[in-house]
Hints:
With 757 residues, the protein is of the alpha/beta class. GO terms for molecular function: acylphosphatase activity; carboxyl- or carbamoyltransferase activity; double-stranded RNA binding; ligase activity; zinc ion binding.
Amino acid sequence: MKRHFNIRVNGIVQGVGFRPFIYRLALENNIKGYVLNDTEGVTIEAEGEEKALEKFIKAIRENFPPLAIVQEIKIEEKEVNQFNRFWIEKSRKTEKKITFIPPDTNICKDCLKEFFDPKDRRYHYPFIVCTHCGPRFSIVKDIPYDRANTSMAEFPMCIDCQKEYEDPLNRRFHTQPTACPVCGPKVFLYKKDKTLISEDIEEIVKKVYQYLKEGHIVAIKGVGGYHLACDATKDEPVLKLRERKKRPFKPFALMTGSIEKIEEFLYISPKEREILLSKERPIIILKEKKPIVSKHVAPYLSYIGIMLPYTPFQYLLFSLDKDLILVMTSGNLSEEPICFKDDEAFERLSHIADYFVIYNREIIAHNDDSVMFVIKETPFFIRRSKGFVPAPILVKKPFPVHLFASGGDLKNSFAIAKDKVVILSQYLGDLESPITQRVYKSAVEHFLKVFDVHPEVFISDMHPHYFTTALTDRLAEGKPRIKVQHHHAHIVAVMAEHEIEEPVIGLSFDGTGFGIDRKIWGSEFLIADRKEFKRMGHFSYFMLPGGEKAIKEVWRIGLSLLYQAGLPIDYLPFKENKPLSIILQMLEKKLNCPFACGIGRIFDGVSALLGICETISTEAEAAQKLEETALKTEKFYKIEVEIEENENEIIISTEDLIKKIIELKDKKIPIPEIALSFHLAIIEASFKVAHRIRERSGINKVILNGGAFQNRILLKGLWENLEKAGFEVFLPRKTPLNDGGIALGQIIIGKENLHQL
């Protein structure tokens, strides 16, 4: 019996080969009708025999293309229309825009094979692409995802490309970025003064290799922005890049041509190998095995971030030398957003790079490389961006209104929500600079337009001085506003990921978050649900002399911790040319000395007290150096930290912790052993508090989140202790451990509090 179904498929179903997949499936099952893209997803009109239709629909559910994410399939029976063939209909606009854009991905094996085949017409063509790979998010201006709505619109296809594009059985059928040397974008090599050197790809790649081997710095336009590249095996170019980029400590990411080359000098676990080779191609932080790269790539650290090539040009460059290892860091000044527009790149990077490799296709949405690390064969995000954004995070219950959440001021990503999805933006960085703020506003406008979101409620952090708080006020234009506590958002982000509805014990550890008592929180033990929270405990407060200045000059925190513990300032290693008497007066009079309890700030202060770090040039530098020092030993001394428990809160004594650290120092215990003992003391005290909260509340689910958990010793130690004690431990897997994920928590908390508006 012949039947007719209208089938609507929602999710990431455009730009991933979904229509040709449906077309081939229809031919295989003798289905008549058509398939089309619209602004809601993919619509299929399918007529055929009942059993054939069942098989057809089953295959749609189970065998969809690798880059697709199917969120929902709706099926409605209609009257038989007597279609006599199956075809692909032109795209349409509907009332709603709820379709999604796939992330940018690594070049696929089929394209790579053609790329290196001298007989292929796309031999060494750096924009080779097909329906299974290449740029997507970075080139899209609007939906539906058609060539006219991308930055490929200005490159009309040649006859050969058009034939492939129109052939439903071809791998490049309706591949919007498809092109070839005849009709597509081209690559150019320039000096930093914009003098053109070459536009021949063979000459360009050889010259770039030559420049890099000679010690020059080359800016190379990638998928989502510019990289700055130099030879990672030589000190001179790496130091030159550090000086020009104004980046004395923060590690550089590397790129090399093969997994085999990585294995020569870095340890790789099975999970790390899998992620390195994945289509997303993130940077993975790996432990050094053998020192063959410059020690200035990651100064003071034994872990190095590395990735494999993912663009055709990168593959071509590394094909010239199997031993080539390059620094491949974001094209920007330290803490600024990545450059992605050509004129701006020359303007902002010409004092850093000696040469520029550019191409004449516009990047619409900039996108840094994602960064991940693995603990216990479990991957965690440090930065969620290229390869993963803008894949939606699905929720069970629909949002009653469109929402916008602005995230935090550090490691920023914002979020939008409608229907049953939340979409987190790409990594936008720290919002201190006017350039980053401008890029942030532009990215918000782009997301709202492309995903057709018209926010009716605007959500931000409750910090009164955050840029995002002020911006959200302006964006709201009088519409309802919700302000969310920072650490509550950290916990609820993980609840959303794991679909947890009931209250949990939440441990939110970081450096800074505005508290409801107007103090600076960051060592939080909460009982939280999606709507509200109760603060159950924290480390005791101490002062930050000079406020923000103390976060940069961490010796000030060391001095404050000594003062708080009643210890003499002689224990501070960094006393020379310091205004110690002025700082002590500030502490005594509590002048410009905000109270804080963040784990990150405690790490900073202890790093100073142990003589490891005096000042920092980038966030978490002191804490990273302290962790690295602790990793040099396995010997430690057990520190029992005083814990005060009353009806309202459980307080871990920061003063007692510092006294016991100084006692070990007095005993001339080696600094690495004190550093490890400190880490284990934090773990043990935190575990005890979590245990006591479970005894009080009966709650067994515990969430760990916050930037401090990027510390491997802290994360692994506390995670294992909690699991051994029978806790169900939940961690962020789809969002970063740092502030890059709080917008998700803000969105969910906002939704739960809509009734109060």
